[in-house]
Amino acid sequence: MELMEALRTRRAVRTYTDEQIENDLIHELIDAAILAPSAMNLQPWSFVVVSGSARLRALSDEAKRYTISNLPEGSPLAGHLADKEFKIFHGAPALIIICATNDERQSDEDCCLAGQNLMLAAHARGLGTCWIGLSRPWLNETTVKKELGIPLALKPVAPIIVGKARAAPTVTSRNEPRIIWGH
Q: Per-residue confidence at 168, pLDDT binned at 50, 70, 90?
């Protein structure tokens, strides 16, 4: 897939088949992620992979309970999370959590760059992805880190679900960019 086509057609996927993603393919996506630029070439990322639709459904329920109990009053997400059918991990068969390995100022952003690479590589391989930022506070809880085998020193930054899409999302239009030409 040509780069500009990938940029124009990649979208968040929120419906997945139960087909598992092979470890070799997940490794290929991570290999693409680590090609991202990083400040001072520190490459401050580590990857935690959680596989299995059933496992992710159970974790989705845990994450949903945590998120509901920690929402700020009046959050527009409250109605969305109240839907019994809503699953935070959308039934995906794999979750790749990109974690910052240090507290350097740019490390979170570097992990985000790696996440974009991973999502574009997955799209090029015919897979769907969705960045699940809603799960980030839950993933940073000590008990959750222990449950998932995430070393306590790591900071989950970019939780991305991956799988075969049940249906391709429609490509949406983009607003014209606001460009300010500096003097």
A: confident
